[in-house]
Write a structure and sequence with these properties.
Layout: E1 2-6, E2 12-17, H1 20-23, H2 29-42, H3 102-118, E3 122-125, H4 135-144, E4 151-155, H5 160-167, E5 172-176, H6 182-187, E6 190-194, H7 195-205
Parallel strand pairs: 1-3, 3-6, 4-5, 4-6
Antiparallel strand pairs: 1-2
């Protein structure tokens, strides 16, 4: 797939062939959904906890005598039916972790990249550089590029001036190309990648290992 290459002035300076094995793969919606659910589940801490009736710090004495009051028979006030008592069947700390083979995870990324490429949501730039952090200048650069909506900027390596320039833009997020994941791909409307970030993705997803 051949796509135009833009510069920071919003001018087309050439074209580049996107690897077919990455950007023209079969779009498998079910696989992408599975990868997304796995990532969101693995992000859960699972630290929620409620107290059972045996863990509530209240007296264990019988509330009132068994007979003669005309009321129902009750023992401890720790029972879940009373205010301040324990919680019945409440959550306890647990792991939500889900496993997924590496080949399936990478296939899901190829599927998402292929869907974005088919819709014209991938924008390739020759380079993305800033001498010093400038949010306004970065907003102008991104505004000159084709596409609109929430944008994900992929970087080949650490680039502090660019990262700090993007940090305060509400609808723009930056990410290292090696940390590309299904959640960020599906959450953004436009993927902006310099040529060096494209090479990182080509080396990472281009061949099965």
């Amino acid at each position: 797939m051949e796509v135009p290459v833009w510069n920071m002035e919003g001018q087309q300076v050439g074209t580049v062939d996107l690897p077919a094995e990455i950007f023209e793969a079969e779009v498998n919606v079910g696989l992408m959904h599975q990868a997304y659910v796995r990532q969101m589940a693995n992000a859960r801490l699972g630290t929620h906890s409620t107290k059972r009736r045996g863990e509530v710090n209240r007296t264990k004495a019988k509330w009132y005598r068994q007979k003669g009051t005309g009321r129902a028979r009750h023992g401890s006030r720790n029972a879940p039916i009373f205010v301040g008592g324990g919680v019945a069947h409440g959550p306890k700390p647990r792991s939500y972790r889900k496993d997924m083979p590496r080949k399936m995870r990478r296939a899901a990324l190829r599927s998402a990249l292929s869907a974005l490429a088919a819709d014209g949501q991938i924008v390739v730039v020759d380079k993305l550089e800033m001498e010093q952090p400038k949010t306004r200048a970065m907003r102008e650069v991104l505004g000159r590029l084709p596409g609109e909506g929430k944008s994900l900027v992929l970087l080949a390596d650490r680039n502090e001036p660019v990262e700090r320039s993007i940090r305060n833009l509400p609808d723009v997020r930056y990410l290292r190309a090696m940390y590309l994941n299904i959640r960020d791909l599906l959450r953004h409307d436009r993927i902006i990648m310099p040529l060096d970030a494209l090479e990182v993705i080509r080396a990472w997803l281009g061949t099965e290992r």
